[in-house]
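BUG-309 | component: ligand-complex export | severity: low

The export step for iron/sulfur cluster jobs runs without errors, but we want the raw record kept on the ticket for reference. Input record follows.
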Amino acid sequence: MNTKQKYTNLIKTEAKRLGFLSCGISKAQFLEEEAPRFEKWLNQEMHGEMKYMENHFDKRLDPTKLVQDSKSVISLLLNYYPDQIQENESVPKISKYAYGTDYHFVIKDKLKSLLQFINEKIGQVHGRAFVDSAPVLDKAWAAKSGLGWIGKNSNLITKEVGSFYFIAELIIDLDLEYDNPTTDHCGTCTACIDACPTQAIVEPYMVDGSKCISYFTIELKNEIPTSLKGQFENWMFGCDICQDVCPWNRFSKSHSEPLFNPHPDLLSMTKDDWEEITQDVFQKIFKKSAVKRTKFSGLKRNINFLKEY
Ligand code: B12
Ligand code: SF4
Ligand code: SF4
C-alpha cells in the first residue's frame, strides 16, 4: 500500500468512527459538467429570493478558488432519518431533517474532529470544513465521489439508505486516492415528479427552487402567494414529499445521533397546539433547531397559511 492509499484509508476509517454514513473523495478541480447547468438555473431565476446563490459564482464551481492550494474534496454523509415521525396527517408537518439540533452545529463539530485527526496522524494539512451554508455544490461533489447519484428530485440518493442524510465536505491541500461516480438508478420511475404538489420538479433532475414548498416555508421572507393555498399538504417547515415517495427511501435506516432526536413534546403536539403556539413554546421546542431560521413569526405565518383554506 502506498502512502496515498494509507492516508485515504485512515481518513475513511476515522470518518466512520465519527458517525458519518460514508466518505468519498474527489480531486479538487473546476466542476465542468455542473457549470452550465448551474448557470442556467440562476439565469432562469430558479433561486427566487435566495440571492446568496448568485454570490461567489466562480468559487462555487471551483474549490481551488475557495481554499488556496486545495487538492482534495472529502465528501461526507450524515444520516438524519428518525425512528419516529409525526404520524397524524392533520397535524402541520416539519421536515425530518429539522426535528433535532441544527445540523450545522452537529456536523461542524465532527468535521473539526476529522481535520484535527488528519493533522495529528498525517501531518500539517491546511483545510476548511463546509456544511451547506458555504458556496459549495454539496450534491455534485458527493455524486462525483461515488457516494450516490443525483435523482430526478435533485437529491443525492443511495441504493443502501435512500436520501435522508446531510452532505458536508472537508477541502484540504493533501493529495489522496480518488473515487469514481456511481450509476443512476432512477430508471423509468417518476414518482417524485408526479407527487410534487407545486410542480417544482420542472424536468427530471431540475428543481425550480422558487416553486418548492421548502423555499416558501423556510427561505421566503414575505407573504406566501395566495395562489398556492391548498397545495402545501400540511407542510409548515420544509417538505419531504419527493423523498417520502422515492422507492429507494424504503431502505432508510434510523440515525444513531442523539442530538437529532426531537424535543419530547414535538411529535405529540396536536393541530390545536400548533395553531396556538406561543413564543415561549417555540423557544422550548426549537431551542437549537434549524427551524429557528424561519423565526417564530415565520412559523406562525406558515401555520396560518395552512389554516386559511
Ligand atoms: C438552495 C438549496 C435549496 C433550495 C433549492 C433546491 C435545489 N434543488 O437547488 C430549496 C430551499 C428549495 C431547498 C430545498 C431542499 N433542500 Co436544499 N439546499 C440548497 C443548497 C444550499 C444549494 C443547492 C444548489 O446548489 N442548488 C443549485 C442547483 C443548480 O443545483 P441542483 O438542484 O443541485 O441542480 C443540479 C442537478 O439538478 C444537476 N442536474 C441538472 N440536470 C441534470 C441532468 C442530469 C442527467 C443529471 C445527472 C444531473 C443534472 O445539475 C445541477 C447543477 O449541479 C444545498 C447545500 C449546498 N451548499 O449545496 C442544500 C441541499 C441541496 N438541500 C438539502 C435538503 C435536505 C433539502 C430538502 C430535502 C429540505 C426539506 N426537506 O425541505 C429540500 C429538497 C427539495 C428538492 N427536491 O431539491 C440537502 C440535500 C441532501 C441530499 N440527500 O441530497 C443539501 C445538500 C444540504 C446539505 N448540506 O445536506 N434546498
Ligand atoms: S420538496 Fe416538496 S415542493 Fe419541493 S420539489 Fe420536493 S415535493 Fe416538490
Ligand atoms: S422517486 Fe423515482 S425518479 Fe424520483 S428520485 Fe426516486 S427513484 Fe428517482
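Assignee comment: Attached the raw record above. The CA atoms of residues 161 and 252 lie 4 Å apart.
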